[in-house]
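Data follows
____________
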Amino acid sequence: MAKTLKPYAVNSILSTARQMFNGTKQRKTVVVEGVNDVRFFNQWYGDSNIVRFVAAEGKANVITVHAEYVKQKNLKEKKAMFFCVDIDWDLLHRLPPPNSDDFMCNSYCLSSSTHYHNDLEGFLVNTVALKKVLSSYDIDMSNGQLAYLSNEMEKASRCVGKYRAADHLVQKSLGLKNSVLNGLDISLFFDASNFSIDEEKLLDAMPRWSNYPYHIDDLVNEASTLNKNYSRKWELSNGHDITEMLALYLEYKTKIRGLVKEKIEKELRLGCELSDFILTPMFAKMNAESLIQ
């Protein structure tokens, strides 16, 4: 869980952004969710004299920094800072998207309200980066295997994602203090041999760890509704779920012990081509704001 930034940390981000912009090169700052986002963008823009990326340790913290930024009229008027977040499940949770003037999303266009992917990892597995990662582990991709695996990844992550996404809605609608789902250990229900989730086993086990076993039916019904209403591929997928299952799958296929999602996510980030990023709404926003050299 991301930690909440202390006021001095928020002030530090703002003051450093001010210093960077007030210098001779007027370097602008983009506040992103985490250090891995910084690493992703720095592979292309780490040497830029126009833009720099800084991590706020979580989406909520990005929002917090932005709230303080809008109070800094000298920074705001000069458009010295921008903010980048994943859209996640905000739309189906009926949360308003962030301000399109100051914000950008990698896989969601704020100006046209066009959804592509929920998060960075969801984007990455839909680029050439996935093919590169699979190739590095000698996974057979001939005869349509890559497309088949991608389809199974979407179905498996949707199976888990619909319950995670429904959890927030059920908790809110019933006025519950805690989550109904109370977490979910994917490894207990994932079949690496065919990249699938044993949903029947999951549902049978869910009451054993739920905070509210008597509300499981509400959770299942809400998940079913989401699955029906949000039928576009990847709409219900969480990127970290995808990469966790991909790590388990690769461990099964290669017999390499100790593969974890963090390692796979790093390999996906490094495998992404600039040509893929150029097609994203975030690149379009950066280009429009003259953040691209």
Observations:
- The chain has two domains: 7-116+277-288, 124-273.
- The radius of gyration is 20 Å.
